Amino acid sequence: MLFRSERNEVSDSHTFMSAPDERGHFGDFGGRFVPEALMPACLELETAFIDAWRDPSFTTEYRQVLREFAGRPTPVTPLDRLSEQLGIRIFAKREDLAHTGSHKINNVVGQTLLTKRMGKHRVIAETGAGQHGVATATASARLGLECTVYMGEIDTERQALNVFRMELLGATVVPVTSGSRTLKDAVNEAMREWVTCVDDTHYCLGSVMGPHPFPWMVREMQSIIGIEAAQQLKDLGVENLDMVVACVGGGSNAAGVFAGFANAPTRLVGIEAAGGSAVGKGSPGVLHGMKSLLMQDEFGQIEEAYSISAGLDYPGIGPEHAYLARSGRAEYFAIGDSDVIHALQVLSLSEGIIPALETAHAVAWLLQEAGKEIPLGSTVLLNLSGRGDKDVAQVREILRGQR
Amino acid sequence: MLFRSERNEVSDSHTFMSAPDERGHFGDFGGRFVPEALMPACLELETAFIDAWRDPSFTTEYRQVLREFAGRPTPVTPLDRLSEQLGIRIFAKREDLAHTGSHKINNVVGQTLLTKRMGKHRVIAETGAGQHGVATATASARLGLECTVYMGEIDTERQALNVFRMELLGATVVPVTSGSRTLKDAVNEAMREWVTCVDDTHYCLGSVMGPHPFPWMVREMQSIIGIEAAQQLKDLGVENLDMVVACVGGGSNAAGVFAGFANAPTRLVGIEAAGGSAVGKGSPGVLHGMKSLLMQDEFGQIEEAYSISAGLDYPGIGPEHAYLARSGRAEYFAIGDSDVIHALQVLSLSEGIIPALETAHAVAWLLQEAGKEIPLGSTVLLNLSGRGDKDVAQVREILRGQR
Amino acid sequence: MKSLETHLRALRSTGRKALVPYFVAGLTPDWIQHVEAAVHAGADAVEIGIPFSDPMMDGVVIQGAALRALEAGTTLDSLCAQLLTLSTSVPLIAMTYYNIFHHYGLERSTGKLQSSGVSGAIVPDLPPEEASDWMKASASRDIANIFMVAPSTPPERLGRLARLSEGFCYASARMAVTGKSSESGQGRRVVESIRAVSDIPTYIGIGISTPNQAREACEVSDGVIVGSALVQVILNGGGADDVENFVTSFRRSID
Amino acid sequence: MKSLETHLRALRSTGRKALVPYFVAGLTPDWIQHVEAAVHAGADAVEIGIPFSDPMMDGVVIQGAALRALEAGTTLDSLCAQLLTLSTSVPLIAMTYYNIFHHYGLERSTGKLQSSGVSGAIVPDLPPEEASDWMKASASRDIANIFMVAPSTPPERLGRLARLSEGFCYASARMAVTGKSSESGQGRRVVESIRAVSDIPTYIGIGISTPNQAREACEVSDGVIVGSALVQVILNGGGADDVENFVTSFRRSID
Ligand SMILES: Cc1ncc(COP(=O)(O)O)c(C=O)c1O
Ligand SMILES: Cc1ncc(COP(=O)(O)O)c(C=O)c1O
Q1: Does chain A have fewer CB atoms within 10 Å around its N or its C terminus?
Q2: Is the pTM of this model over 0.90?
Q3: Mutation probe of ligand 2 site: the residue of B96, B99, B104, B361 with most atoms within 8 A of C-beta
Q4: ipTM reported for the complex, 2 dp
């Protein structure tokens, strides 16, 4: 765990990915921009998280559930055939093998345990494609918590099977009909709903975004990825990792894996979808309780993201990423939809791993930049954030359309 | 590994699940009933397997690939809420968390490594629902082997997404139009095809069936399940396991988990689909290269199985299971389609794990027999052979139809 | 003391309960006439909702209205220009989300508001912890910062919010976003808690949708804010007359 | 020596090449007439295919024919009853998969075959390693066991198969299941290997579909087995006349 008992101004101490300041700032970003009605819940959550994260009985249970239920540690797989093709040495951290098929489970296991510890018996969550929703429904079922998931109406139609999956797990899925009827609006709606039920309900946010303490807490709960990977690479005899590459929607899988290498001489690279590129096309702004980089028009209206992958279909990015980008510690690049399908095919064919479309963005960047941004001979860790099973129907349609 | 350097008559030594006799017999069952054209290939395979399985460099690589690529060990999860409901203590061995979503990967990792070792560059396989096909395509992609999968035409239509998944992984899927156009005929066709290409092609059979050495070899390659589970239960403080329960199609996941407990005082229970119940409704016969228990009519024509779950939709059973059943060492029960959906729902709701329909047969039996065949207070290991993601569309249709 | 607060304290001292209707700027081409009709019917101040794409504190009615206003091309610039055409002179209070001002620039925003006749601002997603830059920018422009107090606000926080509030203190009647509600809510309790620590005028809002609810609220508070119910009238196609009738009915009920 | 082998050796000593057509029993109601027509046209022995649900060694033609025969209700009992009506007297050789006999009972099966006039059996999925029970049961019924030798059979195995074979030894021309083939195959090599270890009559089958291929095969072998090509004629709706013409053309070609 990366918990620091003393929370410093990150920029002062010159260590990266330690705790934010008392108000949840990572440099100029972060904070807590929520209606007064939610402030007490955020403060309560902050206290509860700090307390739990320091409590060995909590962290022990958290790690035990990750191990016995969620399948951690996930392996690090050397991608031999792709490495040979590209002239760089690639290892993949296999979050696709975690229960429910992505890194999302790490976070929800932690947050649902925290929900119980806070004496609440219900969680709400937002979801885009449904990965975080399925993960939340899963962790809730395990603990017998009630669970309601907000999902843009368009997404409930596109991802009808994931809706059914959540229902099988006992969750109620509420289609959100406001705004663009996708992820951004699902977050709005979950926040609105949370106002009405903060007493007995925890909002189980799905990425390193939202008001403090969410970005910090979710990063901490995902840091297990990077901590494991650093050790596993050592065990595999890799002494100097040149680069870590991860896709970025809100940024939780990236933050989790970066956390293991933030203070090592390793380049940290986040890959956004070109149509949801908050670092590349965004500017500072305030949305969903945080100050961060956002895609917005000249009057500060938030723009709708568009990406082939629902999980990257978000106009913002977690505030710590905004800070890492502006401080230069991490770099962010964008990949367009057209390169993503090809990357998914290449990884499937060469390594026998069908990645999620989100993850395929990071793969596409490796294919594109090997020998350019990534010097030949480099050693690279790819965070394989999820499996592509949820996406194959969509990919099939797209490839059919191309013929 | 359960390899015994001396292969004994099983019944003589009074140990169970050791190697079969020289001709591949488990008691009265097993053997090698194949056309002469395939005999040399079966003999070559037997030699190659024995040689490889004794070679630490092979078993080391096999275990390394299982660890680094396939995600082993899979965890053992205490099913606390279900245990409380039923009054028995249930642990689940989580094969659903293995790469590609079921235990099938264990076998194909071994067989594809063996294919390379034999100097062959191509594999063929049969598949029903597509789990073994996807697993074979996966392991083949990883090694750069050519891969052709035979699949009943009806199954290619029912499981169009799995066909596409295999294609993404570089495999060629051949629809089989003969006979009942399902799994049984896919096996026939794969065998017919193998005759034409034994020189450079290995037939990667998907369960503990077929001619010697397949039933033995596949069981050995799946025994990692039981070996891991026995150790993990010890680590969890479980000293006396009363019962192991697994679903049985061909019987590979059951054989794999039984292997860890065959010579312990643990009841071994296999659950067949009522419509594919070779032990319950079958009689001795010869099919697909083996003597075993088969569902057949009075003139020895093989009956078509019918099950809600494609993976149990097989009129036979592996010969070692026939032996274990006749010797009394293991017991076999059958569960009808109507109980399966309910069991899938119960496990999803109470534990946050959506099982495969195959696996749900074993769950249904636990629900039905807790307090009856399974005395209250018993400690039971459920082999959770696969995840239900492949089945949710079908389950949704069925539940809709019921409303 | 900012001029809004001076004004509203003076109003209170006359014994009159403040009626503050809420409009979504730019919702219809004649929205300025709607504002004028409300003033004519007895509004003491008007909330000017500046539409935002992601109104986290608003229910479906105001969300829908904001979306329509945005689709009609409403911007901070356009609505401020329109405010200059207003023929009435009650206090105007801007209500919007922080990103609008943050993106436009804090100095630039407050300058714009002031020059458009706005003397107060409610920014529901800007808590005091994050408000210092905004408070600095608004100080020099005589824009009063109105904070909300929620039923969930604990005592220590409540004191701070009440003390920081300028103009009036916004007592949220319920744990909910804007929108109709039939229950009477917790406005009374919230107002009493504010009164215990501050003598600032205190108005109840969130879920006041009938004249009866308004009257009840005014038994304890110094005024009421009426939002969604009025916006609904306009969404239903109501014109200036309907607005006037609507506001009149509330006015009568609280006088 | 079983009587089938005595008969076939005697045939060979006359210099005549053996022509063995294959029929799927029960494929059509008049299948017995087809057999008779073939004999009339010069068949020296006939293979009687007993249909099985899962014919692992057969290509699409014979699979389809077997399925049709089964759907028509063909059983071991029914076809044996029909064999008794045959008006000709060439040797009959049963060909089927082991499960048919295993399930019917080995003693019972061989008894049934003998009493129906069958004097040989080809069971392609019964290798010598598993054949001892069957060989015991067939010994007392004068049923000759015919083993197949494949192009892939290694020398040691080949010797054993040739020695065990009774009646004749079946040289498989290619690594494939039954069905048409245009290439000439490896029959010549297989026959030569068998000749090197045994003087049993040796016939080539698997993929012999034209009179030309048959003639070529008989340059080295003692006879040919013609299966799928003939079954196809019947599947196409051909009657006894067509069978007679078909067999005649093969007879002419190898004489
Ligand atoms: C597999 C996968 N990767 C990445 C993401 C993006 O989220 P984050 O940036 O928080 O990791 C998602 C979101 O659904 C996902 O499912
Ligand atoms: C999840 C799962 N369980 C069980 C089976 C049945 O096979 P076996 O009996 O060989 O384990 C299958 C076959 O597809 C399967 O996918």
Answers
A1: C
A2: yes
A3: B104
A4: 0.95
